[in-house]
Fold this protein.
Amino acid sequence: MARRRFFIDAVHSGRALLTGDDAKHLRQVLRAEEGQRYELCDNESVYLGEIDGLGREQVAFRILERLDDEALPVRLHLYLALIKFDRLEWAVEKATELGVERIVPIETARSEKGLERAAAKRVERWRKIARESAQQSRRSRLPDVTAPISFPDALKAEGLRLFLDEQPGVEPLLSVLPPERRPSDLVCLFAGPEGGWTDSERAQAAAAGCTSAGLGRLILRAETAAIAGLAIVSAGWSAS
C-alpha cells in the first residue's frame, strides 16, 4: 500500500512541519505516532519524512531522503466555462487527479448569470479541493487554480489550444493531436458551458488559432466533456 502524501510549505535543514487541517487529520484521523513515515511535497520535490514530534497544531518531520518523482506525460491547462459551482468543484477535483497544471474558469456568453460575481469568493475553496485531490492522487505539485477571466483573455493562452465543440462535422479530439509529442508540450483544453459555445465564440476561437475538436455524437455535460477531453489528451501523450 502506498504511503500517504502531504504538501508542506518548505524543507529547512532536513526538517519540515505539517500544519493546519492536514496536521489535524494526521493526528486525529490517522492516529499518527512518532516514528511513522509519510511522503512530503514542497511543490517541487518529494521527500520521505519520519514523524519526530506531535503538537496540538502541527506535526514535525525529520527528512530521511529525497524520492524520485515520475514526470507527467504532458503539461495540461484546463480553461473551463463557469458552470454551477457543485459541478465545477467536481471538475476541479477530477482535473487535478488527471494531472492538470492549471485550471482557469472563464466567463462565457452562456455561463449562468451572476456566477462570475460569486466566483471570486469561491477561488480559495477550489484551491483547497485541488490540494486535497493532489494529495489523494499522489501528485508532487499543486495545480494553479486562478480567478475567472474573460473569454477573450482566455484565448491569449500559449501552447496547443484545443477547443472542444459539439457541432456536427468537427474532427474527433484524438485525431487532431500532433504526431510528435513530448512531455514538455503545453496543451490548453477549452471546455464550454451548458448550452455550448455561441457562434461568436466559435469565430473568435478560430480567429485566435484554436483547433476545434469533438468527443463523439453524444452531448455531454460541461464537466463531463472537460474530464473526458483531459483523459484523451493525457492518454494520447502517454502512448507516444
User: Anything to note?
Assistant: The longest helix spans residues 222-238. The chain has a mean pLDDT of 93. The longest strand covers residues 58-67.
